[in-house]
Prior knowledge:
With 352 residues, the chain is an alpha/beta fold. The protein has helices at 2-12, 19-26, 31-49, 88-101, 114-118, 120-134, 147-155, 170-176, 182-195, 211-224, 251-263, 281-286, 319-328, 336-350, and strands at residues 52-62, 105-110, 137-141, 160-162, 198-205, 228-233, 270-272, 291-295, 332-333. It has a single domain, classed as TIM Barrel (Alpha-Beta Barrel), CATH 3.20.20. Helix 12 (281-286) links the parallel strand 7 (270-272) and strand 8 (291-295). Helix 3 crosses helix 11 (251-263). The structure holds iron/sulfur cluster.
Amino acid sequence: MKKTTDILDKAQNGVKLNHDEVIFLLSQREEATLNRIYEAARNTRTEYFGNKIFAYGFVYFSTYCHNECSFCFYRKSNDQSLRYRKNRDEIVDLSKALAASGVHLIDLTMGEDAVFLEDEERLIELVDAVKAATGLALMISPGKVSEPLLDKLIKSGVDWYALYQETYNRQLYRKMRLDQDYDQRMSTKIQARDKGFLLEEGLLTGIGDTIEDRAQAMLAMGSLGVSQVRTMTFVPQKGTPLENVTPQDCGNELLNISVMRLLYPDKLIPASLDVEGLSGLQGRLMAGANVITSIIPPREGLAGVSQSSLDIDDGSRSLPMIIPTLEAAGLTLATNADYENFLKKEKIKRGA
Ligand code: SF4
């Protein structure tokens, strides 16, 4: 009990936790202790962000991909996967609707779709069109891309580049991201960071990762200079090699969120709707998350990543349906000015 108190006090006093302390926190299983960790994470969020929460609109505009990640529904060989590629006008209209609903950023996501990767101008044109139509901050999640494409994307005003490693355990990585070089993926992130993008990194849990793996990844993400750190629980996907893995509950994800908040108090940490939908939002906010991600407009034929359809068509992943959960947790939606202010300060901190 005293050790937990000492570690939480240390973190809340702004002192960086070390490897052993991170391991200790991630090893806790008793409910009362977990509640104390969640509470410390919430207090830290309040200290840095008040009661304001950011919201990201998610436009998964192409579900085609040439990769074979073993955990992913959209891997190339999965013939059960939903495939679509939205055209530019559809993407702009979806983005405008999300902007009108009050999101602070549009996350433009695709699988590694050769159509866009071989015709970079097509991708840049759609990014420019979304920027012009919404005026919002943009995140791009296009997979691993070439250096010239990174240059074009930053010139088009894209703020964020998201490229998830999912695990920093190289052996596990090889089983998850089949035939994708670990170091090349890392180098692409570093290139993007050095060009002035803010980075989002991601950690998947429930894929055979250990507490040591998670601690190592969380600490390494700080050295990488990330500005947003996300963690999600693995959801087994039909038609994939991991289809029959027994799913874990979301306990590790919630604890990861809290420990990330204590490690990185001034960074953005998502509460993703893409694992448990709206019903899982409160727990993630109570664990210290401060961005709601995977907000998807209903009935537009869009998919999520881990949960391809959960809560989408009935509108439960749209902002008006989400606000009551925020308010019940004593939180409020930030303004666009709040988000712009965060971006400005974070870019200065990162030297971007
Ligand atoms: S995780 Fe991304 S890169 Fe891997 S198969 Fe799925 S869409 Fe493709």
